[in-house]
Amino acid sequence: MDRTFVMVKPDGVMRGISGEVIARFERKGLKLVAAKLVRLSEAQVMDQYREHLDKPFFPSLHAYILSGPCLVMVWEGHNTVSVVRRMVGATNPSEAAPGTIRGDLALDTGRNVIHASDSPESAAREIAIHFKDRELLTYQRVDEPIIYEWQ
Ligand code: UDP
Ligand code: MG
Fold first, then answer.
1. Do residues 57 and 48 touch, judged by C-beta distance below 8 A?
2. Residue to probe by mutation, ligand 1, list 62, 109, 111, most atoms within 8 Å of CB
3. Which H or E run includes 58?
4. What value does the CA radius of gyration of the chain take, rounded to a whole number of Å?
5. Is 115 a catalytic residue?
6. pLDDT of 64-116, one tens digit each?
7. 51, 54, 57: which to mutate for ligand 1, most atoms within 8 A of CB?
8. Domains of the chain, with CATH numbers?
């Protein structure tokens, strides 16, 4: 099983669509292993988006992420990183496919509702920015034996 880091950004939290986002991952069969509603620190934003520090959009991204609460989460399942990225959709919501979270729920790249890790390496790094090991919980979804063929 793999884990990925997912964050409902402040626009998503303030629009009241956190539940919709969670519900999509739950229905897919993924398992929520950590979640908390937080205001990110300056240091966490810089670390989370370190590959974008020199990009022209970084100041607006920085202000956006600090503009309200974020719902930070860790989701677990088979191929979770790629499955979640596909469910999230393209960075620009106007181009994101219908059926994806951004394709269904957003319009603007600068207000695209959700972040998800883009590789297993990023996932491990990003989970460590936001969670301590003891905050990642272990339990069984009761439907796991039905969701996976091999269980
Ligand atoms: N972003 C932006 N303008 C851009 C590109 C990106 O505001 O032209 C923001 C947007 O919130 C995006 C985040 O920066 O989700 C990270 O960009 P990335 O290219 O990593 O997109 P993602 O991985 O979130 O799809
Ligand atoms: Mg990215």
1. no
2. 109
3. helix 58-65
4. 15
5. yes
6. 999 999 999 999 999 999 999 999 999 999 999 999 999 999 999 999 999 99
7. 57
8. 2-145 (3.30.70.141)
